[in-house]
Amino acid sequence: QVQLQESGPGLVKPSETLSLTCAVSGYSISSGYYWGWIRQPPGKGLEWIGSIYHSGSTYYNPSLKSRVTISVDTSKNQFSLKLSSVTAADTAVYYCARQDRATGPAPICYFDYWGQGTLVTVSS
Amino acid sequence: SYELTQPPSVSVSPGQTARITCSGDALPKQYAYWYQQKPGQAPVLVIYKDSERPSGIPERFSGSSSGTTVTLTISGVQAEDEADYYCQSADSSGTYEVVFGGGTKLTVL
Predict the structure, then answer these.
(1) For the residues of A56-74, what is the DSSP string, one character each?
(2) Which residues of B touch A47 (CB under 8 A)?
(3) Residue B49, phi-psi category: left (phi > 0), alpha (psi -120 to 50), beta (remainder)
(4) Which of A5, A13, B48, B93 is deepest in the core (most CB within 10 A)?
């Protein structure tokens, strides 16, 4: 069974960088699939942040691209998120998820396994 | 940027059929996916590729597509189906930017 677990600080100061890690078990990141980050502000909807392939290929939400870096460490079977220059608007539950993605004539992209989520609050 | 539009809320009585729509210009070219999210829990995929159901998802959940609108149908709604439902797709411009709808709160009366 594929399992994902987010970890990282629950409180980040404004203007600083938010850093989270997602540990994957039950599946080797090197075997394939994309791996993504999604967030959900309190009481609001889901927002995709970005995704990464085991090779390191990434694609990001254009609205966040200037502040986001997603990286992968296949030796530890985990991937990470960095979001810089955070403000209160970045307060959210952050989820990591496995993403089935394929481009071409019949493109697909959906998230089939999710972590439980971790709340990150931006406050001084 | 690309948007998917869902009604904020849908209400049905137990045993009835609930239909939740999602509209977007790229839906004729891109598959849609549906997630169920209960309070305090992570989303769960209930429909993928417009109408396919993952293993473990009850048969009462089904999906359909027509033009720029996709629909999640829950037949014989049960109290446990009360949740937020999100559609998801991607833009068709070549960037495959992932987009979520705003979510629909399903209330079982």
Answers:
(1) S-EEE-TTTGGGEEEEEET
(2) 100
(3) left
(4) B48
* pLDDT tens figures, A62-116: 999 999 999 999 999 999 999 999 999 999 999 999 999 888 777 889 999 999 9
Our CA-based measurement puts residue B47 at a distance from the nearest CA of chain A, in whole angstroms, of 10
B14: amino acid identity, one letter: P
Residue to substitute from B98, B104, B105, interface A, most A β-carbons within 10 A: B98
Residue B94 has pLDDT above 90, yes or no: no
**Interchain CB distance below 8 Å, A45 and B44:** no
Residue A32, SS3? coil
Nearest chain B residue to A115 by CA distance is B42
CA dist., res. A58 & res. A86, Å (int): 21
Mean pLDDT, chain B, integer = 95
CB contact under 8 A, B45 and A111: yes
- In sequence order, the 6+-apart residues with CB closer than 8 A to the CB of B86 are A45, A46, B6, B34, B35, B37, B43, B100, B101, B103, B104
For residue B97, the chain A residues in CB contact (below 8 A) are: 48, 59, 61-62
